[in-house]
C-alpha cells in the first residue's frame, strides 16, 4: 500500500496507510464507522464533514490544538519548519526561559503532529503539511472573525474589496513604489510586513500613541471600531496599512503585521507540557484507607436507610418527573444531611438500580427487587456495586436545583440530568489522583487546570449564568462525591479505589473487607430507654431494632431510643410483648432495664384493646367506659362517631384515618380483618416490578472493539478495491448510452448472464453494479462460483464473504483488466 509520490488528496493519504493505521483512525474517531464507509473516498469525505471535525477537535489536548491552530494561519501547504516557527517565534525575544520553552515545543511537536495525522486532521509529508479544509475553516481567521490565536485575516483577504486608489494611497504612505496592479500592490504590502528590517523602520517612525493602539490589538481581538474622524494615531496606522478597513466603522490588524509584532508566534503562551497536579497534603496511606473505609460503610448504611424509609412506598413523583422540593427536604431531614447530599444518595440508589418508580396510577418511588439481593450482600460488595454504578452514571446530581435551557428547575431523580461527559471526567479525575503517590491529596485547582489542558474545547454546555465550564464543575463534584462515597479518604485516593479502577470490583472488595468492622450481634441497653450499638449490626438485628426503636444519633456508635410509638410499631408488625422481651434479653450485653420492660408491657396491655374495621369503619371494645371516654372527647368530633352497640362505635371516615385519629388522641388501637383477626402491618413489603438500572447516555458512538475495527478495515479496503480497480470497458449495446467514468456498469440482461457464466467457468473476477431491495446502488468485485435459477453465487471481495445475488438486480458487469483481487 506504499506510495512513491506525495498524496494529492486526503483520500490518497488514507489509501497509503496500512491497516493498523486505518484502525487507529477509526478507533480515535468512532463516528466515522456509523455506517461503515463503502471505500476510502467515502471515509475521507466523512472525515472532512464539519460535525466529525468538530468532534475530533474537541478531543485534542491544548498543545495539539495549538498546533492545528498554527497550521490554520500558515500558508497551505506549510513545511514543518514554518509550523515550528509559528510556535517558537523568529528568535527576536531570545532568552534562557525562551530557549527552554522552545526546546519543549520542539520536543512535543512531532507527537502533536502525529496525533493530528492519525486522526486525519492533517495530511501530507513534512515538506507539505495540509490541515483539512473544514478544520481550516473552523480555526482560521476570516474577514468576519478572528481565529482562536487572535490573528486577523491576511492582507490579501482584508483588501479583497478595497479600491485600487486606496491601495495606492497606502503604498505611498508606507514608502512603497506605486503599482497599478492590485495583486502587485497586495504583494508589496505583504512583503513590507514580513520584512523584519523594513517593518522595524516603519514602526520606529510611528507615534508612541499608535504603538499603544497596536499593543491592544496584537494578541487579539484584532478588530477595532473607528469614528468617521479618527484620532491621529489611528489615522497614521490606517494610512500606513497597519490597520485595514473591513467596514465603514471597523478596522483590522492584518495577520502579517501582527505576526511581526508577536515575534513570529501564533500563540502568546504555547503549552507543550501538561500542567502538573500539585499536592496540598501528604497523608499516611493507612489513615487514608481507614477514613475512606469508614465513609464507604456510612455510604452503604445511608443508602440502606434511605430505601428503608421508602419501603412502604416512597414520595410521589412529580408530573414532570422527579422529587418535589418539599419531598427532597423531608428526605434530607430524615437522613440528617443537606439537601444536595440527599439528592446525591437518591441519585446513587437510582443509578445502581435499587430505586425506581412503582408504575402505579398514583406513581411513587419504591425500592426494586434488586434492593433485597443487594441488602443481603456483605458491606464491601454492596459498596463496590454503588461505586461502579457511580463511575458509569451519566446522571449528574450536582445540577439539581439549577435550571435547564428553558428556565425550568432541575429536580432530583427528574429528567434532563444526564450529561454524557460525566463518566469520562470522573474516570479522568480519579486517574490523575491514582498517578500521585499513595496518601497524596491534590490541589483541586491544579486538577481543573490539567483537565482544561487535556480538553480545552470541551465543556461549552455549562448552564446559563455559570462562569465555569461544565467539565470543571463535574470535576469539582467528582472530588466532593468521591469523599462522600469513600472513593477517597481525607482527599487522597484510597487503596481499594485504585484496585477498583485497575483490577476490578472483586479485588476492591477484598481490600476493603479487612477495613470494615464485622457486624455485631448485640447492643448495650441503657436505663434511659436507649440502646447503644457500638458498631454495625447484623442485618436481622438491625431490622428488628429499627422497628422497635427510633435512631437518635449516628456515628461510630448508633443510639436507639425506645418510645411508646416505636414499641407500638413493633407490635403492629406482629410481635408480642413476650417476643420483644426475649429479643432484648438475647441481644443485650447489659441487663434489660426495668423501665424498658415496663414500657413494653404497658404499650402491649393497651395494644389491640380497641379494634378498627370497615363499616365505613368502626371501633369495638369490650370496655364500654373506654368508648364513652372517646365519645366524650372533643377531639373525636372530626371522626363523626356514633354508638352502634354498647361495645361498638361507627365512624364516617376510612379505617386508616380512624386508626390514625385515635392514636393521636393517645389510644393504641389495632386494625382487624373481616374475620376479626388483628391485621399485622409489616414494613418493607412494597416493591416495584423488576426494573433494570438506568442506562448511561453514551457520549457519541461507542468505542469499537478489535473485531469490529478489523472487519470495518477489511470492508473499506474491499470497497476501495471495487471503486478503484482497473476494468475493461464493457461492450456497448446499440443505442445504449455510454457509461460515464466512475458510474455503475450498464449491460443488457443477456450480456450480464453470458459474462457471469463465463467468469464462473474460468474463475475470474468481475466488476458489477448492484441495486439492493431498498434501491441503494453499489459497486462490487465478485468471483462467480455458480449461476442457476436466476441467481449468481459468488465470493464478494467487497464484503469478504460468499453471497448470492439475483441477476435482475445486477445493473451490468465489466471484466477486470487483470487479476487485482489477490
Jot down its keywords.
elongated, single chain
Brief rundown of the structure:
With 822 residues, the chain is α+β, with helices and mostly antiparallel strands. Helices cover 45% and strands 12% of the residues.
Structural account:
By secondary structure, this protein is of the alpha+beta class. Helices cover 45% and strands 12% of the residues. The protein is built from 33 helices and 25 strands. The protein has a 5-stranded mixed sheet, with helices on one face. A hairpin with a 7-residue loop joins strand 7 and strand 8. Helix 5 packs across helix 8 and helix 21 (422-434) packs across helix 23. The longest helix is centred in the middle third of the chain and has 25 residues, at 285-309. The protein is elongated, with a radius of gyration of 39 Å. The relative contact order is 0.07. The model is unreliable at 459-467 and 730-739 (pLDDT under 50).
Major sheet, described briefly? 5 strands, mixed
Mean pLDDT: 85
Low-confidence stretches: 459-467, 730-739
Q: What is the C-alpha radius of gyration, as a whole number of Å?
A: 39 Å
**What is the strand tally?**
25
How many helices in DSSP terms? 33
Q: Walk across the major sheet and give the strand order.
A: 18-19-17-16-20
Structural class: alpha+beta
Quaternary class: single chain
Work out the helicity level. 40-55%
How far is it from the N-terminal to the C-terminal residue, by CA? Answer: 13 Å
Shape: elongated
| Beta-strand share of residues | 5-15%
